[in-house]
Structure formats: C-alpha cells, structure tokens
Amino acid sequence: METMFHTLHQFMLSTKSVVYLLMGGTLVGLLGFWFFLTGRDED
After folding, report:
1. How far is Cα 41 from Cα 9, in angstroms, rounded to an integer?
2. Residue 6: helix, strand or coil by DSSP?
3. Three-class DSSP category at 33
4. Alpha-carbon distance 43 to 22, whole Å?
5. Model-level pTM?
6. How far apart (Å, rounded) are the C-alpha atoms in residues 33 and 38?
7. What whole-number distance in Å separates Cα of residue 9 and Cα of residue 33?
8. Which of helix, strand or coil describes residue 5?
9. Is 22 exposed, middle or buried (0-12, 13-18, 19+ CB in 10 A)?
10. Using an 8 Å Cβ cutoff, are 3 and 14 in contact?
11. Tens-digit pLDDT profile for residues 28-38
C-alpha cells in the first residue's frame, strides 16, 4: 500500500483517522477485558 500524500493536510487527516481507530479499538478491548475480569461466577 503506497499512498502518496500531496499536502500536509492529507497526511494529517490520514494519520488522525488511523489514531482514532486505534484508540477506539483499544477502548473497546479494555472494556471487554474489564467485563471479563469482573464477571461473576454463578454456580
């Protein structure tokens, strides 16, 4: 994947969108892990 950035604005927009996706995925993963750790064992 070779993307050519012609302007600084294109580069910043692409970088920002990737960072937001990573942060969102991390938050969802941490939330799932938290529910896994605090889940109750109902026997």
Report:
1. 51
2. coil
3. helix
4. 37
5. 0.70
6. 9
7. 36
8. coil
9. exposed
10. yes
11. 999 999 999 99
